[in-house]
């Protein structure tokens, strides 16, 4: 690849994708689910380069950008840490940052079917998950523990919010996702595709999660709600089964990211 272009002026228009990311983690005026995907850190940027997302530009401190195996059509820029910090609005500790074009949500029918409609399949369904870091942590566990995709209700945070991508270590880029606009009625399409939907809740009348046999339910979709309120009664009612993670008396619940990882592993 050619040597990275050295940026000395923080107002240089060539690095506009990275300007003032601290303000809402995306350039001011960008729509809620809009703007480029921003990826931080060498390992996450390498995952971005291996993903289907088109990389627009890479920006970092001297040495970090040149060490990446970038295609010729990716713009590469470097600057000292002071100029880099002034551009993005905070101190970047991971040395390199990249921008990429977004991809639209997957077609719901195609995501539900998967490459082989007869194969076992696992999905995570998120309701009102408005914390970007929790979403990123769930995505990282999902990819590690055999989840094939994410289904989001309309109130979920942007899955490609900078902090979500950062916490996922870039793994969220490998997970297809679709949006269920008519929530929770769209769960009917999930059921029609052969999925058992499992609503996680700490309620004492829910079944023990360990009693759900993954072999007997080769297609499973785990429903997870926001930290604190959890799943709405409407979402729980629409699910096939309500399940709880058994815990010691006196502990009423786990954080949603931890609960998600346990459920993904249990139902693998």
TrEMBL record:
GO terms for biological process: methylation; RNA processing. Keywords: Methyltransferase, Transferase. Residues 124-264 form the tRNA/rRNA methyltransferase SpoU type domain. It comes from the Bacteria. GO terms for molecular function: RNA binding; RNA methyltransferase activity. Coiled coil: none annotated. The keyword Zinc does not apply. InterPro entries: Alpha/beta_knot_MTases, Ribosomal_eL30-like_sf, rRNA_Methyltransferase, SpoU_MeTrfase, tRNA_m1G_MTases_N. This is tRNA G18 (Ribose-2'-O)-methylase SpoU.
């Amino acid at each position: 690849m050619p040597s990275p272009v050295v940026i000395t002026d923080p107002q240089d228009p060539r690095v506009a994708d990275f300007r003032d990311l601290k303000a809402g983690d995306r350039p001011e005026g960008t729509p809620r689910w809009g703007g480029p995907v921003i990826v931080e850190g060498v390992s996450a940027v390498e995952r971005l380069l291996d993903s289907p997302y088109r990389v627009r530009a890479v920006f970092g401190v001297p040495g970090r950008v040149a060490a990446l195996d970038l295609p010729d059509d990716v713009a590469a820029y470097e600057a000292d840490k002071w100029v880099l910090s002034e551009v993005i609005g905070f101190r970047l500790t991971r040395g390199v940052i990249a921008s990429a074009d977004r991809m639209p949500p997957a077609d719901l029918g195609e995501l539900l079917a998967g490459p082989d409609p007869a194969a076992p399949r696992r999905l995570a369904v998120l309701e009102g998950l408005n914390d970007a870091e929790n979403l990123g942590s769930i995505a990282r566990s999902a990819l590690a523990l055999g989840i094939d995709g994410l289904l989001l209700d309309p109130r979920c945070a942007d899955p490609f919010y900078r902090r979500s991508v950062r916490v996922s270590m870039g793994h969220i880029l490998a997970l297809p996702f679709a949006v269920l606009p008519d929530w929770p009625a769209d769960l009917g399409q999930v059921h029609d595709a052969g999925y058992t939907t499992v609503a996680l809740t700490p309620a004492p009348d829910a079944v023990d999660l360990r009693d759900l046999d993954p072999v007997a339910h080769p297609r499973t979709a785990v429903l997870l709600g926001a930290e604190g309120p959890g799943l709405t009664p409407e979402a729980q009612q629409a699910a096939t089964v309500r399940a709880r993670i058994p815990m010691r008396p006196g502990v009423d619940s786990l954080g949603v990211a931890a609960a998600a990882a346990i459920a993904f592993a249990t139902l693998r």
